[in-house]
Amino acid sequence: SLKMASDSPESLMTLCTDYCLRNLEGTLCYLLDNETLRLHPDIFLPSEICDKLVNEYVELVKTDSIFEPHESFFTLFSDPRSTRLARIHLREQIVQDQDLEAIRKQDLVELYLTNCEKLTAKSLQTLVSFSHTLISLSLFGCCNIFYEEENPGGCEDDCLVNPTRQVLVKDFTFEGFSRLRFLNLGRLIEGVNVETLLRPLASLAALDLSGIQLNDVGFLTQWKDSLVSLVLYNMDLSEEHIQVIAQLRKLRHLDISRDHLSSYYKFKLTRRVLNLFVENLVNLTSLDISGHTMLENCTIPSMEEKMGQTSIEPAKSSIAPFRGLKRPLQFLGLFETSLCRLTHIPAYKVSGDKNEEQVLNAIEAYTEHRPEITSRAINLLFDIARIERCSQLLRALQLVITALKCHKDDKNIQVTGSAALFYLTNSEYRMEQSVKLRRQVIQVVLNGMESYQEVTVQRNCCLTLCNFSIPEELEFQYRRVNELLLNILNQSRQDESIQRIAVHLCNALVCQVDNDHKEAVGKMGFVMTMLKLIQKKLADKTCDQVMEFSWSALWNITDETPDNCEMFLNYSGMKLFLECLKEFPEKQELHRNMLGLLGNVAEVKELRPQLMTSQFISVFSNLLESKADGIEVSYNACGVLSHIMFDGPEAWGICEPHREEVVKRMWAAIQSWDINSRRNINYRSFEPILRLLPQGISPVSQHWATWALYNLVSVYPDKYCPLLIKEGGIPLLKDMIKMASARQETKEMAR
């Protein structure tokens, strides 16, 4: 079912929402005075649509770097007569006091504010506007919402130094929030009196006090008939806490887990505490004790523990206190405890570090609010993916993608997540992944590259991109990928390995793509960047993969793209070509790449005069005799000269070498090549070759072109015969056979 889910297209609702948010002006809104967004007066939208617009907007701002947030977005929902909001989830820096203020007339039922650090006590007042309808509220990680700014009186000077001081609001309570049932106060700021804050609430069903230190939780018993879920993650517990919890007999979900790395805990779990929970909390279906140290051995003797099939029946439990359960738990959190490695655990879902299933359960359970735990769980998944084989690949991928999206600015998650992605997308898993899923991977990888200049993240992201078919799979993010890679290559200090991977990716991205793509990338400074890399390598006198890939990338990006060819010449490309030839006379691969590129330049009539110097022509003529890389260097040198000859004797503006002498050397070179040579070259179009056929000004150019076509169609008929026919080569060859000026051997070959 997971495969089907990942493969199905987005719903029409999602596509429309996305389109409207990216084109607000063209769809729902108009611009007032060129700056403020206003809703068209004839638009009326129900909460199903408005909730989705707001929640997707938050998601887009957070995960799509190209998406521009709008100052006045929330004002679109200020009037409940035209737009209704009911359930909204807002996150991080995206939301400010004025945004909540803008929607204060809405009858919100559910409001999740997660890590909204920009909200201040002004927003507490706005919350009161929702008090009569609100059922669920989360203020998780809103660390400034209980602070207001106070202007201190007194001397003028002091005001300039410290214009606003933050003061804790002491008098706010949930008075009047008569319908509130679900409340998350996780990571609430110290100094707020939780008991006073909550006392007015009549019947709480779920309460999350993660990361809050309370010595006395006796006040919780006022909801002992209604509380079904209690989360006390990272609260330092004592015997008093345990006694209070044991009185909350309606509890179905109890989480007393902790991050065992965060600070010193006096409290240790014992057999008696677990027995107390099992006896008193008879409705319990979910318990999390992750990160706890067991003071005593709670396990049954090891002989008995190892026996029989793995079972989730409480009667067979390896953890003795859980033998008293009426039925298996739905969820048991044992991450970073010794208990998760036991054989018989009475729960359908266990979070732990024993195997893939437990690790995935941990990532799933903790991603939203506990990145510190999640990054360690992803690290375990990384080891599983690297060393063993992942059996729940799609689930693993989706969980890592979610974690990377959710914690875009968390370095640990970005490092471990990007590393795990590399192993989860490699070729052995390829068949199981849908296009949609692979696109999601690419999106989070690019987000990571944008947010983090950190070497490890950059390297992991670049390596992961190498697992994709390039350019095909990256086409939908073409500009963005290229910009990011050029950005990496333009940094003054570079990590060798990243540089190598980035140049390789750049080269692959401009290979076999349309000319408009190449032009766009050329305008981004691609040619300049590659030439700078070549310049650096020349200065170090090294000819490595970076040097070869850079020339190869220039060869690809200049293919049938005159603008890029011109850039190559303008940025002293020819000077670098000569210097490389001189510095690395033995490097065949390098020579082939450089000459392939010059072949592209020579195809552009307007640029050929710049190649018409004694020095260049001598170099090309000498390379006709080169045996480097089979016939490739000689073939490309001859191609460059064929285009130059095609301009006729009057274009030959130099005394040395003589035109006839060069022509003679060209004939000799072509005659020396084996007609059945297998080739290291890839033609997308024959157009530049075909234009050398219908002319009498340079028979040798005609011969080179005919030889090229003959070789390609005879060695690779399936690929090149259709291309020759499609581009009208047949009539051109037939006409040429009738030409008096054509050489006999050329006609033979044409025939």
UniProtKB/TrEMBL annotation:
InterPro entries: ARM-like, ARM-type_fold, Armadillo, LRR_dom_sf, LRR_Zer-1, ZER1-like_C, Zyg-11_UBL_adapter. Keywords: Acetylation, Leucine-rich repeat, Repeat, Ubl conjugation pathway. Residues 404-750 form the Protein zer-1 homolog-like C-terminal domain. GO terms for cellular component: Cul2-RING ubiquitin ligase complex. The keyword Repeat applies. Residues 196-337 form the Zer-1-like leucine-rich repeats region domain. Pfam families: LRR_Zer-1, ZER1-like_2nd. Coiled coil: none annotated. Belongs to the zyg-11 family. Interacts with the ELOC-ELOB/Elongin BC complex. Part of an E3 ubiquitin ligase complex including ZER1, CUL2 and Elongin BC. This is Protein zer-1 homolog.
